[in-house]
Design brief:
The structure is a single chain. By secondary structure, this protein is an all-alpha fold. Helices cover about 60% and strands about 0% of the residues. The protein has helices spanning about 15-25, 25-45, 50-65.
Length: about 70
């Protein structure tokens, strides 16, 4: 086990479930997964900051647009 209490990844010659899943996905889905992974890394390291005013503006504009 590693310092983070997560088991270390196994090395195997057969494709992993993750590899099989990624192989079945299209380009935009893979790009989204990569972006989500990057955001998770940034959040975990404390480097991702949300602009509260920008978020509130988007929430309000979408709510008003969808309300019609």
């Amino acid at each position: 086990m590693s310092v983070t209490s997560r088991p270390s990844p196994r090395k195997s010659s057969s494709p992993s479930k993750r590899d099989a899943f990624l192989a079945s996905q299209s380009g935009p889905q893979i790009a989204r997964q990569a972006r989500v992974g990057e955001l998770r890394r940034l959040v975990a390291s404390g480097q991702y900051k949300v602009d509260g005013e920008k978020l509130a503006g988007k929430i309000l504009s979408r709510a008003l647009r969808d309300d019609k």
